Amino acid sequence: MDAATNATAAFKLLTLNTHKGFNSFNRRFVLHELREAVRAESADVVFLQEVLGSHEAHAVRYPQWPQKSQYEFLADSVWQDFAYGRNAVYTEGHHGNALLSKFPIVRYENHDISIGTHEERGLLHCVLRVPHSEIDVHTVCVHLGLRETHRRQQVQHLCRLISQDIPANAPLFVAGDFNDWWLLANRRLQRCGLREAFVQHRGRLARSFPVRWPLFKLDRIYYRNARISRPRVLSARPWSRLSDHAALTAEVQL
């Protein structure tokens, strides 16, 4: 590809655990403010975790509750395509991972990686048709379990997905909430051929949780067959008031 083509094949990623549209400790419903903050970042592809598909009780309790799903509300008219992977189902509704995209999503599949019945988790695999790119772009939106024994198996599932379902030469971005308190998943994913954006540019993973005093390195942006620049942690206002996790962004060039 020539220089002009490279320039048009550049875009921006953002990943965030939305905490189901509530701030830390569930004190306020902040989905409308969250939508404005995400819009202001002008990301082309947005990875969302813990986003509600529906919740009947909240819809009655909160006057500003949207009439459509949270991911459709966040996408609105800005992100023309979106995909949702329902992971957790309960009496009032369900939640999971979602991807919002300014590029066409040509196909997607949600992979159930739940271990037993303790926690419902999934990997949302989407294939994007990015203009001026010679090959389709693959994305995987991730939310791993809280137990280390579960995460080991879930990372193995992710690595199998990458090796079996994603072409070796395809651009790939894997982002989300890894709940990787002890950094074991990070080492395993590196062995699967992935690089992490903050490690490559700053020498260490980003601190993203809890958002007001980020100490733990739970949220990540991994990639393969692409160039990433300007990784940023969004933990100052307004982001510190919009979730319990900080959002991460990075710029991409294919």
From TrEMBL:
Residues 15-245 form the Endonuclease/exonuclease/phosphatase domain. InterPro entries: Endo/exonu/phosph_ase_sf, Endo/exonuclease/phosphatase, GPI-anchor_lipid_remodeler. Transmembrane segments: none annotated. GO terms for biological process: GPI anchor biosynthetic process. Pfam families: Exo_endo_phos (PF03372). It comes from the Bacteria. This is EEP domain-containing protein. The lineage of its organism: Bacteria, Pseudomonadati, Pseudomonadota, Gammaproteobacteria, Nevskiales.
